[in-house]
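Hi V.,

Quick status before I head out on leave. The structure for the redesign project is tokenized and pasted below; the design run finished overnight.
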């Protein structure tokens, strides 16, 4: 989340400031995965109605994510469509331009469910990402852009397919009630389904 009251900080300290103290740790990893909780776009016209908070990141921040070491980024969350599908598609383009592979959202449901694949030391890791948060209208359909909804059947099918094709499968979920410390039984069930399918 690089779009919530930080503009003055970035103006003073630069776009790399959030990663100064963690970059040495991130640089030791074979792969760095994150959740990008805001779109990257210059098109801030279609603000999603009825939400209290809307977040948007300027495109130059994408290079800062790359310099911090991120190689894979989940877009499956409750803010990635704060400024509509055009901003979502801009986000995917900006990430791909920097060599960061997105997952968990796309131009169609099939694209949103497609894993991000990274090759490391002769092996491959498939990253899948799902959202189970409001607004539910952020979810992709077979014809419209959006996020991959954490549907149990989708998860089992996607994980099993990825497991057949790749060495490891890592699944990210964006879910839960805000300010609650424990997962719900439904979330535990979905997590177990992912594990049983091969994650």
């Amino acid at each position: 989340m690089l779009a919530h009251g930080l503009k003055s900080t970035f103006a003073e300290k630069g776009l790399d400031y959030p990663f100064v103290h963690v970059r040495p740790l991130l640089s030791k990893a074979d792969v760095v995965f994150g959740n990008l909780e805001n779109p990257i776009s210059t098109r801030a016209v279609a603000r999603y109605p009825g939400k209290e908070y809307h977040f948007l990141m300027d495109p130059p921040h994408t290079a800062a994510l790359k310099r911090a070491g991120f190689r894979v980024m989940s877009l499956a969350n409750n803010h990635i469509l704060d400024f509509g599908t055009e901003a979502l598609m801009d986000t995917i383009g900006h990430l791909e331009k920097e060599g960061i592979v997105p997952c968990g959202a796309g131009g169609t449901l099939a694209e949103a469910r497609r894993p991000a694949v990274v090759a490391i030391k002769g092996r491959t890791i498939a990253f899948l990402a799902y959202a189970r948060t409001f607004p539910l209208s952020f979810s992709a359909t077979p014809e419209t852009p959006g996020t991959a909804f954490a549907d149990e059947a989708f998860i089992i099918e996607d994980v099993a397919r990825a497991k057949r094709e790749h060495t490891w499968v890592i699944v990210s979920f964006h879910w839960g009630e805000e300010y609650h410390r424990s997962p719900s039984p439904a979330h535990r069930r979905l997590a177990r389904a992912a594990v049983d399918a091969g994650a």
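Above is the designed sequence. The first strand starts at residue 32 and ends at 35.

G. will cover questions while I'm gone.

Best,
W.
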